[in-house]
Amino acid sequence: MKEVLIAERPKSMYKVSTHYCPGCTHGIAHRLIAEVIDELGIQDRAVGVAPVGCSVLIYNYIDLDWYEAAHGRAPAVATACKRARPDLAVFTYQGDGDLASIGMAEIVHAANRGERISVIFINNAIYGMTGGQMAPTTLLSQRTSTTPYGRDPKASGYPIRVAEMLSTLAAPGYIARVSVVKPKYVIKAKEAIKKAFLTQIEDKGFSLVEILSTCPTNWGMSPVAATNWVEEQMIPVFPLKEFKVPE
Ligand SMILES: Cc1ncc(C[n+]2csc(CCOP(=O)(O)OP(=O)(O)O)c2C)c(N)n1
Ligand code: SF4
Question: Would strands 174-179 and 89-95 be described as parallel, antiparallel, or unpaired?
Fold first, then answer.
């Protein structure tokens, strides 16, 4: 029988297995970034800034030049890299603990300055790597290791909607929220990641793609239940849309 190739590993991904838990969607986000980098032909000039969280080892999976930034400081590192070498395509990859908690100041000011960088922001509503503590994006009533009775807004405030908040700023060029939990969301997610890189390449300012992702391990769910939970519980709070597009 004739073999037909319908999918292959992106050229910019190493031939290794990832360390992610079953049902974690970090790996899907990685693959989409690699596909976009291949399609734009920018592997030799793309530079990533890795976070401190479950995806800290992203540099073992995508074959690029990488920096490792201290917790939350990725937008500052990316700013320095891009200002020194405007010809590079510079992006950060950050979880919600990284970006919206310790790194909140960095991301707001980088966006407000309109830095020509792209940010891939993984919102899984929890700190994954360190044992499932509450993140700024944790939903109301969501149980985490630091909110065992559910997140109470009186004690912990409300979930922060990063894409909405940053889209109130004048400088950003492209801001969108997507998901990767089911195939029907993945095509739009890839389009958004591509637009984010093109916004940078075409010098149209700062870009950010927020990706609703899973953490079955710390949510205490099966992989299937976790994907359903994103659809049923997260998307109503974090709607999927393009908030800003370049003029
Ligand atoms: C300055 C600093 N504070 C705290 C930590 C511990 N720490 C490492 S990863 C992490 C949470 C990561 O969560 P998130 O960014 O949401 O990524 P995920 O693991 O969910 O992908 C924390 C608190 C650290 N490494 N450095
Ligand atoms: S702990 Fe959560 S975020 Fe980390 S790899 Fe496992 S499922 Fe993914």
Answer: unpaired
Q: What are phi and psi of 46, to 5 degrees?
A: -90, 135
Residues contacting 212, CB < 8 A, separation 6+:
123, 124, 177, 178, 179, 180, 181, 230, 234, 235, 238, 240
pLDDT at 186: 97
Do 209 and 192 meet the contact criterion of CB atoms below 8 Å apart? yes
34/15 Cα distance (integer angstroms): 13
What is the full DSSP assignment across 3-25? --------TTB-S----PPTT-S
SS3 content of the chain, % helix, strand, coil (to 5): 40, 15, 45
233 vs 11: CA distance, rounded Å: 35
Nearest residue (CA) to ligand 1, atom 21: 54
User: Which ligand 2 atom sits closest to the C-alpha of 214?
Assistant: 7
**Average pLDDT by consecutive 10-residue portion of the chain (247 residues)?**
90 97 98 98 98 97 98 98 98 98 98 98 98 98 98 98 98 98 96 98 97 98 98 98 95
Q: What is the pLDDT of residue 58?
A: 98
Distance from CA of residue 37 to its chain's centroid? 15
What pLDDT was estimated at residue 1?
A: 81
Closest ligand 2 atom to Cα of 213: 3
CA nearest ligand 2 atom 8, residue: 24
- Prediction pTM value: 0.97
Which position has the token pair 């940053």?
Answer: 166
